[in-house]
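Hello Y.,

Per our agreement to keep a running log of every chain we model this quarter, I'm adding this entry. I've kept the format consistent with earlier entries: sequence first, then predicted structure.
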Amino acid sequence: MQPLHARYPFLAAAREAVEAAAVDLGEVVATDDAVTQRALERVERAITDGTVGEPHRRTRVELLSYPVARVLVSLVDQHVCTRKYARAEAEAAREQFSTEFEATTEFKSTQSQRIELRDLLAEFDLSGSVHEAETGYWVDVGTYLDLAADQRGDQWRLVNRPLADGRVRIAAEELHVLLKQAIRHRVTDGLPFDVPDAIASELDEEVDHLQEVLAELDLTREIDTVVPEMFPPCMQALLDQVQKGEHLEHHSRFAIAAFLTSIGMTTDEIVDLFQVNPGFGEEATRYQVDHIRGDTSPTEYSTPACSTMVSYGDCVNKDDLCERISHPMAYYEKKLDDAEDDDLVDWREENGESGEDEADA
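Predicted structure for the entry above:
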């Protein structure tokens, strides 16, 4: 087991090193508290602050804490935990390899302990897809689309990238981001998995602790993702009425406008949605939306709770999740947390890209 393996435990060579050492994870979790506690730290820190904590000074402990952490994530078996854990491991790796790529003397006497760009490209079968240029790199378009799919921001959209001969031009820092995504996919792959009872029983306390951390953690966040198919049924129904040009009562217009504001839509975007509605007046609609978001009022209004939606008569098409939540925003956050990242295609990006494609045609 080498320090390189401990720094990059997702490498095939690291897994082979563990296998060659004939490590019995059941025995490890039963007898090596240092490994278990470091594994617990990896997962807990991933949930709470997006890191995996400081590496353990002992190579064996640090390396073995990775498979045990994957066991813990599998036993917790909550999508938000899996997602946060994979992202934290990938980010830790990115910080590490970016430093090593830039190092010139630190690893000079121990070249085998330094990872290089060609090593990571080979690890993820990217050697033939990434081509060095005078400044930056060219990446085959298929590879780019796969690894950039989760990135937010106009700069990642293919229509905004230099493209030639089926390749996309990127900067070195952007290649690091794509490699981070490849690592995240590797970490996520196979999670969660079935854990033998003999191992699971040794980790009951750690799993209970992580579940408490998840329960206590305020997962409410600044949402800036518009995926209509994941809206709560009440908001889907109101949006459908808006798009069909049907008349909405004032309380219904307020509810859908407050919801769309809460998930990150701008006033202009909401006004555009309401243009097809009978009696639409741009000035009045814009004023109402700005009033809701607190731009023209001392109060920022929130989306009505489920109980209020019921009293309005706007609570319709309830599903099983509706029975377990008390607020439309909680419904939407749960849907986003449970969704695979590939399913989170922002409605604004879809519409913006199609519009640009049509203009280019």
